[in-house]
Amino acid sequence: MIRVNEHYLKLTSSYLFSEIARRVDAHQKAHPEEPVLKLGIGDVTCPLPPACVKAFRRAVEEMGEEASFRGYGPEQGYPFLRERIASADYRERGADIDPDEIFISDGAKCDNGNIQELFSQDVRVAIPDPVYPVYLDTNVMAGRTGACTDGRYEGIVYLESTRENNFIPELPEVPVDLVYLCFPNNPTGATIDRARLQQWVDWAAANRALILFDAAYEAFIGDESLPHSIYEVEGAKEVAVEFRSFSKTAGFTGTRCAFTVVPKDCKAWDAEGNPHSLHRLWHRRHTTKFNGVSYPVQRAAEAVYTAEGREQARALIEGYMKNARFIRKEMEALQLDCTGGENSPYIWIDGRMDSWKFFDMLLEKAGVVCTPGAGFGKCGEGYIRISAFNSSENVHRAMERIRKALT
Ligand code: MLT
Question: pTM higher than 0.90 for the full model?
Answer without folding.
Answer: yes
